[in-house]
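Hey,
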Amino acid sequence: MTVIKQQDFIDSIYEALQYISYYHPVDFVRGLKKAYDREQNPAAKSAIAQILVNSKMCAIGHRPLCQDTGIVTCFVKIGRNVTFEGDMLVQDMVNEGCRRAYCSSENPLRKSVLKDPAGNRVNTRDNTPAVTHIEFIEGDKVVVEIAAKGGGSENKTKMAMLNPSDSIEDWVLDQLPHMGAGWCPPGMLGIGIGGTAEKAALMAKEALMEPIDIDDLIRKGAETAEEKLRLSLYDKVNRLGIGAQGLGGLTTVMDVKVKSFPTHAASKPVCMIPNCAATRHVSFELDGTGPVDLVPPSLDEWPDIEVGGSDNARRVNLDTVTKEEMATWKSGETLLLNGTILTGRDAAHKKICDLIAEGKPLPDGVDFHGKFIYYVGPVDPVGDEVVGPAGPTTSTRMDKFVETMLSKTGLYGMIGKADRGPAAVASIKNHKAVYLMAVGGAAYLVSKAIKKARVLAFPELGMEAVYEFEVQDMPVMVAVDSEGSNVHVNGPAEWREKILAIDFKYLE
């Protein structure tokens, strides 16, 4: 009988969550380098370069890959010949390790978990509870698979109860274009098929724990229905031309994973969950000899590349910018931002718009006139940092607030990630505003452009408070210009056609 000490298990969860916060899986780094090498769209190639440079910076500096350090999902598989020493339940041990990891003083992680989700939505301040799944298996070891999943990619989950004769492939290809770029491609897709609705979702999530091995499958050839589906979707999804960050390009997914389970004769449950460019997961075993010992990957695994793209970039002074100057910015153009920006996410937008609707003034110091708002919830700083990793959050969640913000506050523009909906784009065009895009998955890199930071309002919201940032040469792309030209529409459409023309071979 193997005895696992309670403290060893807690320490292992802590170490694993810290480890994945700053180390991409090596297979992911290799897959991203392959995507970088073959990418022909300069904008997408630049985005992938930023993600790779950010990844190496985080591996060296031991700081989070993304400001959204995720909600924790943990699969614990307990051998039948294992017992635990201690009085805590397994899920409580996972939560304690999670609490310690997210509250670390050396590398604090952003606390994003809220209790009372249907009511007051109050931050738990320690990112617990984790979502824990427990299974009993043969053997005398404990196998743990743990991930920290960001909200941007998790929110793009798609589920359906298909008819038995319906095509899973057709359903996936229909859904993907509607997912936008909020899941921060390039990443991977986890697809669960069969069982019941909740089983399909569980399999899709667990599939994302598997390594990227699509090239091995291509060389071997498909032997099962699941493998055939993987290869077909890998090819056809990439031919959609969505590309890195939704800018259009040759790589949208680096792998497609499929897990299945027997199901009812009348049913075909399907769930698809994407993993983003900040993929974070690790698997390990405990055998009673102590806590996990996770070996850092060699820095030689990361390519030496430069971000580039700034030679022809336009430097902008946000403290003196005018609508006339903004009208000269064109969709797809790179800007380097300098000056003062304010921040605000979901909760702050709701508070601001509620105050406006009630005819009440905004908090002291909060003045959006002639300013840009950055959709971000930063990680707490450590050492001499001004702010921790501070990459953009998914902008579509703020779409419903755009008209109020542009018409009532004097706001000039917005900075975020991914696409905007038709109503938001129409509002941007009507007010001659602009929407700028920073690269999701490059949070530590972006934070280096922030030279000063202070909380202006709503400190009770934690990472969702309104900050004032002073930035220097913060790289962004004009995603929607003042005429409504939208790079997230134009880019994929252009590259779908180009992929047809160049007859790119994804399965070679």
